[in-house]
Amino acid sequence: MRISDLSERASVPVSTVEYYQRERLIAPPTGRYGYRPEDVRRLRLVRVLVEVGGLNPGQVRELLEAMGAEGRTPHETFGLVLRALEHPPTGRDPGVEPVDDEACFLARRIARRHGWTVDPESASWNTLLKLLRTLHWLDEADTEIVVEAYAAAAERLTRAEISVLGMYADQDALVERLVLWTVFGDPLLASLRRIARQDRSRRVFDREPLPDEPGSAL
User: If exposure means fewest CB atoms within 10 Å of the residue's CB, which of 25, 76, 87, 182 is most exposed?
Assistant: First the structure.
């Protein structure tokens, strides 16, 4: 396969292909056969990591090398990708005190309730603690009820995502979709939530029939 064919099949400009090759993110063509079909998938993955995931070439190269380690399980690969995509990077936020307080107790209760194994050093856990501490400081009485609803929704959503990802046997295809849904998932969920909230608010406060109430439209 020639570079022009690779460019067309992956929908990546030739100049970008050449740049990724110089950065050692994709392999050079092999002998008279040129680029291989698997190079199309790798090129698409690299572009997603750079343009969607926001990683620089050095980070992408490091991630791809780690992904290629022999014997690595899909779960371990997921962990590598998610840590690479975390902003700020994995590690304890200096603004989050490592103390046991109401926010920490609540976060642990939620995790236990759903059987989640958590990494207390992850950026996501630190962000959760900061948010819960702010809510506690604001004296929000219904925090646990609402956070539990969020957690239950996150559990259902994640089950659907992992189910879809499990359909892809090719590692590069699987990771490409993991990056896409990780990066796009938060704004997508926020948009849908706001649309649903606007509709529910109108129905409840304007006394319109709710979909699950008698007499509501099908």
Answer: 87
End-to-end CA distance of the chain: 54
Number of H helices, E strands in the chain: 9, 0
CB atoms within 10 A of CB 152: 13
Instruction: Count CB atoms within 10 A of the CB of residue 27.
Output: 12
pLDDT digits (tens, 9 = 90+) for 24-79: 999 888 877 788 888 898 898 898 888 888 889 999 999 888 888 877 888 888 88
What is the distance between the alpha carbons of residues 177 and 115, in angstroms, rounded to a whole number? 25
Which residue in the block uniquely carries the two structure tokens 């501490």? Answer: 133
Integer Cα distance of 94 and 215 in angstroms: 54
Question: Are 105 and 112 contacting, i.e. CB atoms less than 8 angstroms apart?
Answer: no
CA–CA separation, 174 and 167 (whole Å):
8
Two tokens, residue 50: 């750079």
- Residue pair 93/123 in contact by the 8 Å Cβ criterion: yes
Predicted TM-score of the model (pTM):
0.69
- The span from the CA of 126 to the CA of 107, in Å, is 10
Tokens of residue 210, six digits? 């709710």
